[in-house]
């Protein structure tokens, strides 16, 4: 991945033009890449160097503890939360859950029973590195039809013969959703008018996300690799596979086969509400979950509501806040929007809370 999909105003600092100033101050303005019909996008290197600069300038290391959170509990009758970790417990009065996407790669059914040394990997496996995929004689199949699959196929095609295998035709979209969804006013009108915890909310958010799409500049890279003969695109699905001495033997939905294959899956991650921590925190603190296990939040504060309708001091950011923050919740700008609500919520008196969906209180 050479550049971000999002624009130069989406970064982790608080000032909108911080990344642009950083680029200019370091004579790296050429790393703000111009894009047709869209603002400039930063290179990955520039974005990361700016992030490191923010971490240093804002002394974020001083408030960073490294450990795995296993639960959040509260002693009866106190306002104090105990954040339980594998390195002991931390006392606090507020908790923000910003646990990202799901932790488990999504695996197709046919992958269930392979030996560990089979030439099969998921792009998000810890051990997989697209820069060092290892020598392999046969063809590599990249399974997926989104931006991750697109980037991966281009990268692997620099070394080896690649087939990009997608269920559908490659769909081209510049952004992950219409930029209107960055604004609270639009989010409020489109989703806060629907009952918290309802399926209708999630449906609207999903309809707005351009999931499994590829931006035009990745499409161009794919076309170049295709023209150079290193890559082919095939539409279809693997229905079964066997491990052989030469690699995997694959059968496709049209009945055709391929032998001596390696497969790298770019099939996404399991939904974040399935993360065990989400279930544990909700149970320990009696917090309400709606459709598909998403937390039921106060849209104005992003505080997770208890099953009795009162508000906890556990707040949610990132993909887990999608039913309140909308289709950009899982993106950088969504994290910024969430921070605004958590730190400086709008006047609640102006907003009438909607009743929870009938499935929301469970
Ligand atoms: C290849 C790629 C390209 C992307 N490009 C863009 C882009 O161009 N623009 C854009 O806006 N977004 C992009 N994104 C998405 C971007 O990475 C996310 O928007 C951003 O990382 C979300 O931040 P987050 O804090 O919500 O979650 P994350 O960055 O995923 O962070 C979650 C954190 O929670 C930690 N965690 C989880 N569970 C526990 C636990 N039990 N205990 C302790 N810690 C825990 C994890 O270790 C991790 O550090 C891209 C993502 C990928 C993978």
Automatic annotation (TrEMBL):
Top-level taxon in the UniProt lineage: Archaea
Positions of transmembrane segments: none
Signal peptide: none
Compositionally biased tracts (Basic and acidic residues): 340-350
Ranges where the record places region Disordered: 340-362
InterPro entries per UniProt: FAD/NAD-bd_sf (IPR036188), HpyO/CreE_NAD-binding (IPR038732)
Domain FAD-dependent urate hydroxylase HpyO/Asp monooxygenase CreE-like FAD/NAD(P)-binding, chain residue ranges per copy: 6-100
Pfam families assigned: NAD_binding_9 (PF13454)
Name of the featured protein: FAD-dependent urate hydroxylase HpyO/Asp monooxygenase CreE-like FAD/NAD(P)-binding domain-containing protein
């Amino acid at each position: 991945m050479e550049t971000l999909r999002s624009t130069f105003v989406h970064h982790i600092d608080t000032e909108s033009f911080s990344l642009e100033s950083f680029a200019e101050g370091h004579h790296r303005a050429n790393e703000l890449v111009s894009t047709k019909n869209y603002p400039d996008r930063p290179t990955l290197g520039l974005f990361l160097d700016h992030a490191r600069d923010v971490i240093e300038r804002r002394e974020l290391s001083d408030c960073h503890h490294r450990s795995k959170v296993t639960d959040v509990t509260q002693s009866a009758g106190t306002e104090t939360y105990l954040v339980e970790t594998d390195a002991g417990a931390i006392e606090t009065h507020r908790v923000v859950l910003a646990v990202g996407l799901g932790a488990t790669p999504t695996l197709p059914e046919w992958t269930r029973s392979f030996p560990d040394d089979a030439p099969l990997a998921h792009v998000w496996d810890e051990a997989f590195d697209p820069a060092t995929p290892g020598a392999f004689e046969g063809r590599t199949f990249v399974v997926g039809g989104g931006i991750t699959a697109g980037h991966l196929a281009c990268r692997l095609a620099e070394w080896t013969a690649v087939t990009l295998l997608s269920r559908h035709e490659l769909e081209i979209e510049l952004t992950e959703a219409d930029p209107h969804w960055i604004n609270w006013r639009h989010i409020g009108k489109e989703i806060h008018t629907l009952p918290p915890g309802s399926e209708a909310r999630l449906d609207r958010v999903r309809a707005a996300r351009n999931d499994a799409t590829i931006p035009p500049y990745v499409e161009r890279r794919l076309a170049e690799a295709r023209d150079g003969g290193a890559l082919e695109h095939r539409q279809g699905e693997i229905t079964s596979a066997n491990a052989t001495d030469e690699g995997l033997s694959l059968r496709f939905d049209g009945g055709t086969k391929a032998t001596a294959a390696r497969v790298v899956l770019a099939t996404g991650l399991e939904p974040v509400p399935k993360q065990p921590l989400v279930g544990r925190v909700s149970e320990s603190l009696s917090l309400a979950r709606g459709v598909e296990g998403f937390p039921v939040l106060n849209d104005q504060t992003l505080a997770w509501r208890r099953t009795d309708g009162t508000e906890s001091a556990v707040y949610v950011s990132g993909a887990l806040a999608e039913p309140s923050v909308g289709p950009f919740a899982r993106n950088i700008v969504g994290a910024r929007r969430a921070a605004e609500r958590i730190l400086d919520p709008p006047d609640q008196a102006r907003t009438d809370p909607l009743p929870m969906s009938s499935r929301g209180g469970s």
